[in-house]
Every structure is written in C-alpha cells, then in structure tokens.
Design goal:
Number of strands: 11
Shape: elongated
Radius of gyration: 22 Å
Oligomer: single chain
Largest sheet: 9 strands, mixed
Length: 279
C-alpha cells in the first residue's frame, strides 16, 4: 500500500473546494433583479460597508433569482421588479419592501425623427393596432417592435401600465433581456422598445417623451411620468440584525439620495396590507 503525506491530501482537498467558495466572506447578502442591482444596490452596499465595517454580498439576476435566493436561504435579501402574488408571499412568509421606482424608457433608434409619443400610441404599437411609423407622424416604414417577455405569472409593470392583457403585436421580436431590447434598437432604424432608463441612458438610443413628459426621477416621483414600476427587496419574515439595518439605511436620506440618482425615490412605512406582505 502506498502512503501519501497528509499535507498532500490537505492541498488537494483545498484545491477542490476553493472554486466553490465566495471571493470573500460576506456578513449578509442580496441577489436579484439586475435593474435594482446595478442601478442602486451595488452603491448602497458600498456606502453601508464603509459605515459599518462589514461585507455585503451583491449579485444580479432576475426576479426568479431573487425569490429563489431567499426561499432557499442562500441570501437574506432578494430583489424583484414585479410584485409577488399575495398567496405566494403569505405561503412562504415573504415580505416585500418597496425601495425604489424604476423608470421605463421608450426607446427608438437615433435616426428616428420622432421625439414624443402618447401612452395610447405606445400601447397601440405593442398590441399591433399601430404597425407603421407613418400612422404616428413618422416615415412610411413598418414598426419593428422589440418586446421583452418576462414574469408572465406576475404583474409585470410594462404590461400593466400599457393595459396589455393578451399577446403583443404578431410581428414583434420577442427577447428575454433588457440588453437585447437595447441592442436591437441600436442596430435597426425602425425599431422601438421599452427598457429601464438606467440602462437606456448609457446606450446609443433615443429616449422619447411620453405624453410630453421626460422620463426623469423627478417627474416620476411627482407622478407626471406614468410608465414605471416598483422595485422591491424581499425578506423571509421581518428583517433582523444587519439585514434590518441595511434596509433602514436604504430608506434613510443617504440611501434615498443614492436611489434618486437613477430611480424615483420612495418613502418608508407605506403598507398596502399584510396579506401581500408589501411594505
């Protein structure tokens, strides 16, 4: 029988384990919708870490990732851009903390001469009632609608605000991510889509006014810009310890100033009812 030094076994075991370990030991963590993650959570976490000398794990993803992270106890906080169904929240003791308001931007290619559409026109484009740019003052070209299809089993903000209850326009190009929406609109002169303002303003697209209103944090907070959706941090039960301190920080003046750089700000303590677990 051959014998190997104990040190060799230790090194081998460490090599097998290292790839599965986080880059640093975090005190608590968050995972969820990329909109909230990149729009505010990363900066909120950095500010909180400096104040409290702790480490906050932050990772993006989608609504399903945020829900799974909390349900499976991978992280204390999850991020979602579509509200939880009341029955799901109640069954799993999930509480949604409304922390920001996402601004949904209507985007077209920079070559498009239009600068403003009404909400009804945006809705009619999505349902297929308007199919050519000439119907709304543009060139005689077919409209290429780029539509992100997600959160079908939840109240998705764009569908909700536009009143879409059935299929979108038959010839729409269906994509899975906001990145794809933006990339299509950047490439094709006759394309139109809706994407979070925090991503759209960094892209080579034109952001349109809706009903004459610019999609800005201030206009969103004042209720003037209507194409928007709430963003939530979810927890399993009432948050405690560092998680509670972090959520309190998000609602503080400093936290909301960070939120306000890309989103509409909110006010803490607004409760819509215990049955759906939303605060």
């Amino acid at each position: 029988m051959r014998y190997f030094p104990a040190k060799l076994f230790c090194v081998t075991a460490l090599c097998l384990v290292l790839p599965f370990l986080p880059l640093y030991a975090a005190d608590f963590g968050y995972q969820g919708t990329h909109i909230l993650t990149h729009g505010a959570l990363e900066n909120l976490a950095k500010a909180f870490e400096k104040k409290h000398d702790v480490k906050v794990f932050v990772k993006g993803g989608g609504c399903s990732d945020g829900i799974a992270a909390v349900l499976k106890n991978r992280h204390e906080m999850g991020g979602i851009c579509c509200p939880l169904k009341p029955e799901m929240a109640k069954k799993n003791n999930l509480i949604s903390h409304r922390v920001a308001v996402d601004i949904k931007a209507v985007i077209v290619n920079p070559k498009n001469p239009l600068n403003d559409l009404s909400m009804n026109q945006v809705s009619d484009i999505h349902t297929g009632r308007i199919t050519n740019w000439k119907q709304i003052g543009g060139k005689d070209k077919p409209i290429a609608l780029i539509y992100r299809d997600h959160c079908r089993d939840m109240i998705e903000p764009v569908r909700d605000v536009l009143g879409i209850t059935g299929p979108v326009a038959p010839k729409a190009i269906i994509v899975k991510t906001d990145k794809e929406v933006i990339e299509y609109v950047e490439r094709f002169p006759d394309a139109i889509g809706i994407a979070p303002r925090i991503f759209a303003k960094e892209a080579k697209v034109k952001i349109l006014r809706v009903d004459g209103i610019e999609p800005t944090p201030a206009n969103t907070e004042q209720g003037l810009y209507k194409l928007k959706g709430d963003l939530f941090i979810i927890t399993k039960g009432a948050p405690t310890g560092l998680t509670k301190e972090f959520i309190d920080f998000v609602f503080s003046d400093e936290g909301q100033s960070i939120i306000g750089k890309g989103f509409g700000r909110v006010h803490p303590g607004r409760t819509t009812g215990s049955s759906n677990g939303i605060k």
